[in-house]
Amino acid sequence: LVADDGAVRATVFAEMSALAARTGAINLGQGFPDVDGPAHVAEAAVAAIRAGRNQYPPGPGVPALRQAVAAHQGRHYGLDVDPETEVLVTVGATEALAAAVLALAGPGDEVVTLEPYYDSYAAVVAMAGATHVTVPLVRTDGAGYRLDAAAFRAAVGPRTRVVLLNTPHNPTGAVLDPAELEVVAAAAREHDVVVITDEVYEHLTYDDARHVPLATLPGMAERTLTVSSAGKTLSFTGWKVGWVTGPAALVDAVRAVKQYLTYVGSGPFQHAVADALTDDDGRTGAWMADLVASLERRRDLLCEGLVSAGFDVVVPQGTYFVVADGRPLGFDDGAELCARLPELAGVVGVPVSAFCRAGTPAAEEFRSAVRFTFVKQEDVLVEGVRRLGGMR
Ligand code: PMP
Ligand code: GLN
To answer: Is 92 in the pocket of ligand 1 (CB under 6 A)?
Structure first.
């Protein structure tokens, strides 16, 4: 049974949100905003329902959303995407990633990811019957977590079918820079590998970090499937509207699998997201700019609070997560610390070990690490850090 594989089990997010609900602790574990996205975008979904757009949308997604996604890739990154053949709308990024891995990899194939990795990666690689190979991110002095170029080159070889990349990176908040992306691109070109890149946090970067899509590097558009989602950008995680763009033949292969996973995604939300993406230099864009500015402030608030509480913190350049090490407080096991945090401080976090495979160098490196989210209202974060401050 694939469910016997350690990678396919109850997700850590369900477990930790249940712990928060049970104990009444402040949930800084699962990453979802405690304030909804823009009201005018929500109204657009209501309008789509009232307008009777309630039957199955087209398999690849509603044309307006495919056009909006293609235009977004052009406007922000200079990528030339054909909305007819090179865009597939999916049920969140999660389905895009699953369908892409199932479409491209099977028994005997290796799928390379960074480690720590978003938890669904290990699960879908196991479901595909492929082998998961990981490359640890390494902590540097002053530059946060970075790609280990030599380890990455060594991990990609003749058995590699897919590299599944994630930048901005959950959980470390690292935003890969052009030199790191070139290491990935060079290995992919050399070994004729397809790269699936999970860019759901593309717009959530801070300070002077900027997201660069891998598909913009030389020779990469033809071998890259780029995945994103409205969940993070628009703060509507519950709508589950995602998409994948890339060369027609690869997108076709993903669509073939997607048909048998969910057939299509929810129609009214696709119409609303289409309006919002088209307007990302208008009212929706202004809302997004406010979100990023406010997340940057909330990042600083949480990081400073965690440092004052005694954690060793690596300040993230992107996403809405921060990794904090509990060792200075005397905890060298993050999973144990997370299990006790509700009782010790009335707060919930997620152990970074849930994003690692037991026994790997990364699992050892991140053993004492806890991931906290800052996509919560400022007063919630203030109270959270006040409570954590009482731990020592
Ligand atoms: N990839 C990463 C790195 C994530 O953090 C998440 C979580 N939200 C997803 C994919 C899933 O996105 P969605 O909710 O759109 O399925
Ligand atoms: N991506 C979010 C996180 O990392 C949650 C998504 C989920 O619960 N599956 O916390």
So the answer is: yes
Find the ligand nearest to 242 CA.
1
CATH class of 39-281: alpha beta
Q: State the residue for tokens 């058995």.
A: 159
Q: Is 237 in the pocket of ligand 1 (CB under 6 A)?
A: yes
Looking at residue 54, the DSSP 8-state letter turns out to be -
What is the tens place of the pLDDT at every residue in 176-191?
Answer: 999 999 999 999 999 9
pTM: 0.97
Question: Which listed ligand is nearest to 231 at the C-alpha?
Answer: 1
Q: Whose CA is nearest to atom 15 of ligand 1?
A: 92
Average pLDDT over residues 364-387: 98
Distance CA 60, CA 58 (A): 6
Buried b / exposed e along 353-373 (16+ C-beta atoms within 10 A):
bbbbbeeeebbebbbbbbbbb
Q: What is the CATH number of domain 2-37+284-389?
A: 3.90.1150.10
CB-side neighbour CA atoms (13 Å) of 162: 32
